[in-house]
Amino acid sequence: MVSTIDIKKRAIELGADLVGIADLKHVSGLPTEPKDLLEPYTNAVVIAVAVSPDVFEQIKNGPTPLYVHHYQVANTLLDNIALRLQNEIIHEGFRALAIPASLIVDKVNWMGHISHKAMAKAAGLGWQGKSLLLVTPEYGPRVRLATLLTNAPLDPDPLQSNRCGTCNKCQEACPAAAIKGASWDDHPQSREEALHFNQCVEKLTNDFAKRPEIGKNVCGVCISVCPWGKRR
Ligand code: B12
Ligand code: SF4
Ligand code: SF4
Fold first, then answer.
1. Which residues neighbour 209 within 8 Å (Cβ) at sequence distance 6 or greater?
2. Which residues make Cβ contacts (< 8 Å) with residue 30, sequence separation at least 6?
3. Residues ≥6 apart with Cβ < 8 Å to 228
4. Which residues are paired to 44 by β-bridges?
5. Nearest residue to 188 (alpha-carbon basis) of 30, 17, 22
6. Nearest C-alpha to atom 18 of ligand 1 is from which residue?
7. Atom of ligand 3 at shortest distance to CA of 181?
8. Which of 16, 111, 133, 212 is the most exposed place for a label (fewest CB within 10 A)?
9. Cα 14 to ligand 2 centroid, rounded to whole Å
10. Closest ligand relative to 132 C-alpha
11. What is the pLDDT of residue 40?
C-alpha cells in the first residue's frame, strides 16, 4: 500500500531536498497540456532539488556556464527521482505520471505540460514571489522542481502564505526590468500581472541564449538576489 510518509521518505532517499503533496482541487482551472491532463488524478507529489548557493553567488548580471551545467544536472536528477517514484506507485496498482522538469511543449505561449511553480505552491512548498518564482522558506527560489501526478490516496500538505513583504530586490536587479513588483496572497491572475513577460523572454532568448558559453534560455538573477535564498 502506498503511504504518504513512505513516498516522502523515498523521494528524499532518491535525492529530493523537499517534497510536498498537493490536492489537485487547489489547481482546478490551471492551464495544462493537454487540457484534460489532470483528469485521471487526485493528487500531485511535488519535489524540489536545491542548487548550490555558491553557483548563485557567482551570478551577477546574467548566467554563468557553471549555472547552465548545474541547471541541466538538477533537471536530470528531478526527472530520475520522479520516474522512479512513478514506477514504484504503478507497481502498487495506482496511476502515476511524471511531468518533465523543464520541457517546453508550447513554444508559442511558452508553456510546459503544467506549471511546477503552481503545483509546488499547492503542495505547500512555498509561495510565488514577486519574481513569479516559487520561493521556499528553506532555500528561497534556489530550487528546481518537478511534479508527479497520481490517483494514490495521499494526505495533502497545508498551504504557505506569501512572505515577500516590502522586499523588491528581484525587481531592482532584473536586467530586463521585467518584474513589476506586484504581490498577491494566493496567485496572480496572469503572468503579465507579475511580469513584463516579453521583456524577460526577449532577454533570455535574444541575449543570454545567444552567448556561446550559455546557449540556453536561463538567467538566474532574480533567483540569486532573493534574501530567502541567501539566508541558508
Ligand atoms: C516555459 C518556461 C519558461 C519561459 C516562460 C516563464 C514563465 N514565467 O512562464 C521562460 C523561458 C521565459 C522561462 C524563464 C525562467 N524560468 Co522557466 N520554465 C518554463 C517551464 C518549462 C514552463 C512554465 C509554464 O508552463 N508556465 C505557465 C504559466 C501559466 O505558469 P506560471 O508561470 O506558474 O504562472 C501562473 C500560474 O502559476 C498561476 N497560478 C498559480 N497557482 C494557480 C492556481 C490556479 C487555479 C490558476 C488558474 C493559476 C495559478 O498564476 C500564474 C498566472 O496564471 C517551467 C517548467 C514547468 N513545467 O513548470 C520552467 C520553470 C518555471 N522555470 C524556472 C526558472 C528557474 C526560470 C528562470 C529563472 C530562468 C533560469 N532558469 O534561470 C526564468 C524566470 C522567469 C520568471 N521570472 O518567471 C523554474 C522555476 C523554479 C522556481 N524556483 O520557481 C521552472 C519551474 C523549471 C524547474 N523545473 O524548476 N521559463
Ligand atoms: S529571469 Fe532574468 S530577465 Fe527574467 S525576470 Fe528573472 S531576472 Fe528578469
Ligand atoms: S527577492 Fe524579495 S520580492 Fe523578490 S521573490 Fe524574493 S522575497 Fe519576494
1. 215, 216, 217, 218
2. 38, 114, 115, 118
3. 129, 135, 136, 137, 139, 140, 141, 163
4. 22, 149
5. 30
6. 102
7. 3
8. 212
9. 31
10. 1
11. 97
Q: How many domains does the chain have?
A: 1
By most ligand atoms within 8 Å of CB, the mutation choice from 18, 133, 224 for ligand 1 is: 133
- Ligand 3 atom nearest to 133, measured from its CA: 5
What strand order describes the sheet that includes 96-99?
A: 18-23, 43-50, 143-150, 96-99
Give counts: helices (H), strands (E), the chain: 9, 6
Name the residue at shortest CA distance from atom 8 of ligand 2: 174
Whether residue 65 has a cis bond before it, omega within 30° of 0: no
pLDDT digits (tens, 9 = 90+) for 156-175: 999 999 999 999 999 999 99
The whole-number pLDDT of residue 189 equals: 87
What is the overall mean pLDDT for the chain? 97
Phi, psi values for residue 135, rounded to 5°: -110, 125
Q: What pLDDT, in 10s, does the model give residues 72-86?
A: 999 999 999 999 999
**Residue 21: Cβ-neighbour burial (10 angstroms; 0-12, 13-18, 19+):** buried
For residue 177, the enclosing domain spans 4-230
Segments in the chain below pLDDT 70: 1, 232
Ligand 1 and 31: CB distance under 6 A: yes
What's the pLDDT at 232? 66
Name the residue with cell 554563468.
64
Query: CA 5, 112, 195 angle in degrees (round to 5)?
Result: 105
DSSP state of 67: H
**Ligand 2, from 61, 222, 223, 225: best to mutate by most atoms within 8 Å of Cβ?**
222
Give residue 110's pLDDT.
96
